[in-house]
Amino acid sequence: MSYITTYTGKHFDPTCPEGEKIDIRDIAHALSLTCRGNGQVKTFFSVGQHCIHCALEAEARGYGRRLALACLLHDASECYMSDVPRPVKATMPQYKAAEERLLEQVYIRYLGSALTDEEEKLVKQIDNDMLYYDLLHLLNEKTEQDAPVMATDFSYEVLPFEQVERRYLELFARLGEGAEEECVFSTDCLELHYSRDCEELVGEISGTLLENMERIMGFFQLETLEQKVPVVIYAAVDAYAAHVKECGQDYYEWMIADTFDGRINVLALEACRRSSSHARMDREEYARLIVHELVHICQQQVEPNCYGCIWFWEALATNLAGQISAPVEILCSREELMFHYQELPSAYAISYRLGKYMLENLPYEQIYNYICKPAALWEDTEKILEQAKRA
């Protein structure tokens, strides 16, 4: 049997966790019945009660709703795979890796994304501070460290598991309230849709778009846009991947933004960094990504037909957004460039080089004609490709 049966009757494989099967009711119930310290304590004290203490401490320290909820969930993996004492766990790398994968799925489900390195550090600090007092009260063991200064008062009173389970769920409901609720920020020309977890990006994204809008619209000779530019910020990779598939497109790990449905759809910065392709993305690079998608929005308004011209759209977007790619040799044929662009190795780097050549060597009027009349670009693609190769 490759699964466990949970309290709510789900069949769950802890080694291959399915996010949609993670249930807060299973977590609250199991943790309220799981003893802290592998049972090596004077009296019963549940992991659920420990997590409640950690969450309230995070809240009292002013760390915010997201960090407090992360503290409430930080031992959730023990709901599905029993805890292993730290000295033993250090000798079990496969167990530790499975535990980390599972916990990441819990965070993605209930926080919208995994924790950042800084968030993990803060959660671990509270967990360790609380451990000091757990050892002191439950084992009369005082460690060598100085007593941590705590922002809350907490009790080690033995509580019925039903009471701990109820408190856990009530705290989850309070901390998670509105976390997935869609918020909207609107200006005369923008409309951003986001969850509270992405709130800090709203000012940055709207500022970037407004700062570059006149320049990009001018390039496409647009006096106005047909509608406010709609922007959707995704906190979770899974949600973004589902959007891509709903648009009838194949999802690839390197995908982080698109305009498939006429909106700017973009992953939150921290979610982008969890992709191996964008692990080192900084805020400046993220801002260029937003401008890149604005280029596509304007280009679509002038001429929505991109068949055989995706390379050209990306050539303009990468260059007008100020994105810079490392030099790459252009080895593709006209047919590969036009009809198999997504399959090309270093496709965006090729587009960047072609766009750079065109913007530096072709009259603006000719480039604008290609934007308005894709058929003209079809006729000239072979020539542009050969000239760029020689350049």
Topology summary:
Elements: E1 4-5, E2 11-12, H1 24-33, H2 47-60, H3 65-73, H4 86-89, H5 93-111, H6 117-139, H7 161-176, E3 183-186, E4 190-194, H8 199-219, E5 229-234, H9 237-246, E6 257-258, E7 264-267, H10 269-273, H11 283-302, H12 310-320, H13 334-339, H14 347-361, H15 364-372, H16 374-390
Parallel strand pairs: 4-5, 5-7
Antiparallel strand pairs: 1-2, 3-4, 6-7
Helix pairs in contact: 1-7, 2-3, 2-6, 2-7, 3-5, 3-6, 3-7, 8-11, 11-12, 12-14, 15-16
Please provide the ordered H/E string of secondary-structure elements: EEHHHHHHHEEHEHEEHHHHHHH
Low-confidence stretches: none
| Topology, number of strands | 7
Beta-strand content estimate: 5-15%
Task: Describe this protein's structure.
The protein has 391 residues and is an alpha/beta fold. Helices cover 53% and strands 6% of the residues. The strands form 2 sheets. Strands 3-4-5-7-6 form a 5-stranded mixed beta sheet. Strands 1-2 form a two-stranded antiparallel ribbon. Helix 3 (65-73) packs antiparallel against helix 7. The model has no long low-confidence stretch (mean pLDDT 91).
What is the gist of this entry?
By secondary structure, the chain is an alpha/beta fold. The chain is 53% helix and 6% strand.
Core attributes:
391 residues, 16 helices, 3 domains, elongated, Hypothetical protein af1432, alpha/beta, 5-stranded mixed β-sheet
